[in-house]
Amino acid sequence: MAECKHPRVRIVSRDEDSEFVECLECGEVFESSEFRDMTIEETKLKNES
Ligand SMILES: [Zn+2]
After folding, report:
1. What 3-state class would DSSP assign to 21?
2. How far is the CA of 27 from the centre of ligand 1 (A)?
3. Is-contact 31 14, C-beta < 8 A?
4. CA quadruple 47, 10, 13, 31: dihedral positive or negative?
5. Which residues lie at CB < 5 A from ion ligand 1?
6. Is this structure's pTM higher than 0.85?
7. What percentage of the chain carries pLDDT values higher than 70?
8. Which residues share a beta bridge with 19?
9. Alpha carbons 1 and 42: distance in angstroms, whole number
């Protein structure tokens, strides 16, 4: 399978200083602070801020 660029994510959990997102394509879970350094599509995050 090709490497997933995680084009679509949703927030799965959040606490004071970390937030976790799940890729809707491959199901992998990331800490969103790491993920922002990658090419995140920010639609979901923008909606919440
Ligand atoms: Zn993915």
Report:
1. strand
2. 6
3. no
4. negative
5. 4, 6, 23, 25-26
6. no
7. 67
8. 14
9. 25
Q: How far apart are CA 11 and CA 1, in angstroms?
A: 24
* CA of 17 relative to ligand 1 center, distance in Å: 23
CA of 26 to the centre of ligand 1 (A): 4
What confidence tier does 33 reach under pLDDT thresholds 50, 70, 90? Answer: confident
CA distance 18 to 3: 25
Look at 42 and 24; give whichever has higher pLDDT. Answer: 24
Q: Output the CA 45–ligand 1 centroid distance in Å.
A: 16
Per-residue confidence at 32, pLDDT binned at 50, 70, 90?
Answer: confident
- Domain segments of the chain as ranges: 9-48
Q: How many CB atoms lie within 10 A of CB 21?
A: 24
